[in-house]
Specification:
mainly alpha; Oxidized Rhodanese, domain 1; 3-stranded parallel sheet; about 45% helix
């Protein structure tokens, strides 16, 4: 259920545009691609570039509170993917819809 909610929230937030063809995206920067991509797993380096290229993006950390307490990206919001489902839903409902959202986690799959 949570994975579906996060995916739904990310799909709603990141873009309503159709994904362009490979030839259309070949010359685009990561930030331009992010505007057209609904959801995509990226490397740490690509994520860092997106953070630079999209300074107004919301950083959303979906790790556990213990992982969050160990350290997190400055300015990030926190929504515990593995915690209380109602609290997670409330966090998803509070996400602004007028800017990109960059979701990060500790393991691949948590942000899917």
């Amino acid at each position: 259920m949570k994975a579906m909610l996060l995916t739904l929230a990310a799909c709603t937030i990141l873009s309503c545009a159709q994904t362009p063809s490979a030839s259309e995206t070949a010359s685009k920067s990561p930030s331009q691609e992010a505007e057209a991509v609904i959801m995509e797993d990226v490397s740490n380096d690509a994520f860092a570039r997106l953070m630079v290229d999209q300074p107004n993006a919301l950083l959303l950390d979906v790790r556990t509170p213990e992982e969050w307490d160990e350290g997190h990206l400055e300015g990030a919001a926190h929504a515990d993917y593995w915690g209380d489902e109602a609290a997670f839903q409330a966090a998803m409902d509070a996400i602004p819809r007028d800017r990109p959202v960059l979701v990060y986690c500790a393991e691949a799959g948590e942000a899917d």
